[in-house]
Specification:
- The chain has 7 helices and 9 strands.
- With 174 residues, it is α/β, with parallel strands linked by helices.
- Helix content is 33%, strand content 23%.
- The two termini are 27 Å apart.
Length: 174
């Protein structure tokens, strides 16, 4: 059983940031710094349940490949259709919703550069394997990370409207 957004104890600043982001997507995103085991990933996934039905919530793995990130040739669909078919990448799938990255500070510099370009342009340009296509990709970015694993690249933080600083959790037992 996983906890809902409201059931999580702690991370109050992160909750406020996500609620602000839900109300005003023009803030572009939130970076949430917290230690391992604090519930930041559970909180981010719980945030998805607060969004209107049908809003995309796409998880971007830290080790994502360029094909998966941007899109490319969909081999199965191409064989079935008898013509080249482009599969949308994760960035295009997040259009109109949320792109979630757990381990924001661990993203490869090439992935960060591509992500920043798409965030600036609002589109994904696929130019590969003889294919050329453009997909809309306007989304909010929610990233979580453990500061003990390193800092998030400054250029990425500059694009996000909300940055939740690391605050060590204290044991508040009576």
């Amino acid at each position: 059983m996983s906890l809902s957004f409201t059931e999580l104890v702690g991370l109050e600043l992160a909750k406020q940031a996500l609620l602000l982001l839900a109300v005003n997507p023009a803030l572009t995103g939130a970076a949430i710094a917290a230690a391992v085991g604090s519930g930041k990933s559970t909180l981010a996934r719980g945030f998805a349940a607060l969004l209107p039905s049908g809003t995309p919530f796409v998880e971007l793995p830290v080790n994502v490949t360029e094909d998966r990130l941007l899109g490319g040739l969909d081999l199965e669909a191409t064989l079935a259709a008898g013509r080249r078919v482009i599969e949308r990448g994760l960035l295009a799938r997040a259009h109109g919703g949320v792109l979630y990255v757990d381990g924001l500070n661990l993203l490869d510099s090439d992935v960060v550069a591509r992500l920043l370009g798409v965030m600036a342009d609002g589109v994904v340009r696929v130019e590969r394997e003889g294919l050329s296509d453009v997909h809309p990709a306007r989304f909010v970015l929610v990233g979580t990370y453990d500061p003990a694993d390193g800092e998030v690249r400054r250029g990425l933080l500059d694009r996000l409207g909300l940055i939740v600083p690391f605050a060590p959790q204290t044991d508040e037992r009576l």
